[in-house]
Amino acid sequence: MKDTPHRGGNQPIPGEVENIFRDVPGVIASFPGRNYNSRAMRLAIESEISPLSSVVLHSPGAEIEAMTPSTAEELLYNDIIPLSVMQTHHRQFKEVLELFCDVHELTDLATRALQDETLRSRLCSEIIGDATSGARQDEAWVSLEELLCLSPRELVCALVEGIPLRRDSLQTFLSERRYAHPPLPNLYFMRDSAAVVREGLVTGAMAYPVRAPESRLVAAAVAGTLETETPLLFDGGDEARRGCRLEGGDLLVLGPNLLAVGISERSNAAAIDRLTGAIARTFSEPLTIIAVPLPQQRFAIHLDMLFTMIDHRSALVHAPHMLGDTPLPVVEMHIEPGRLPAFTRHSSLLSCLAKLKMEIEPILCGGRNPVNQEREQWLSGTNAFAVAPGQILVYDCNTATLEELDRAGFRVRTACEVTAEGTLPSPGERLAITIPGAELARGGGGPRCMTLPLQRKPG
Question: In angstroms, what CA-CA distances link 223 with 36, 42, 277?
């Protein structure tokens, strides 16, 4: 496909037109902003691969064992997962990250933040409102008063692990539901429910209602740690009511003013327009967005399942959709402050990045064998997470991908080896740290999916 500019763009915004590039959120005024840390945190993400300073994780717990074979699909799982094995593998992941940066547990942040009564009341009201949206009030089967009676720790536990349905009426006695508020087994995929762009926070407008409480809880938890003037670039809970959908796996920060975004079954163009407008207004600098329409199939739920940056000029890619004769075409959207966006079509993400003087060395998930490519992409082989340039965490089950990384100059070491040694790799050393992934991947994501980075250092 020939790269084609749309000539009508980059014009001044008409004064009489209400435009998405003016109608955008402001700052986190919706969160009371009382910080319980001795130091309020400032967000800072301008890259996918700069040295990591701070990250949020959720260690999986009892919510995983609430799933059964009959409920796994509605909770968006491919299968049920044994909790003890999953916890062991996730613990290794966390121990590696602790060598590189500060690691915050989501439940600890949320418990501390919800000591603020105003924030706790708002969160509970939002949870009840989401549960009853489009339904009768009595279908929620849990009241605002019941939630507010819980201590912060009890409330967090109830929201994460679920609130069993009381069989105290004929309606509830006959109901096939098990929970008044369902558990959140997807919560350990922290990337879906929030993201950071520069100094601003993005909270997810989740595609599936069963995941809406995750975005609400993460927003409240993170807000309790932030400087009060932190920009809220996208309020997913409110934006979902406009029909917007946006999840963090579709949002890649390639530079301070360069983003790649997936248009997928989980994120839509309306949300990207809203987010783009907020970023353009907040930072008042030229901005380039590369929109990548993805196949509407489950293997491509997010852009980071097909493409992730792992070094300054290297990326793990799913070759069938990023390379070859028929890569996914993309749309470049360039915005100058005070002007409408200009659009240019490109034949692929890599060709677009090359035009922007960002030549990428593609490293193939699954190698060159089509069967291995398909199998290892399904097991999140492309979904690596960089803790520093050229230093990444990947699943150990994707052996063909590890062979490709080895050929590209990455030293492959296990998580146990790295934590036993306890020393950081040298700057510039290419290193792929493997964690056991066969069970974690069955939830539908990889190391990038399991992290919410808050701060990265320049470089």
Answer: 10, 11, 22
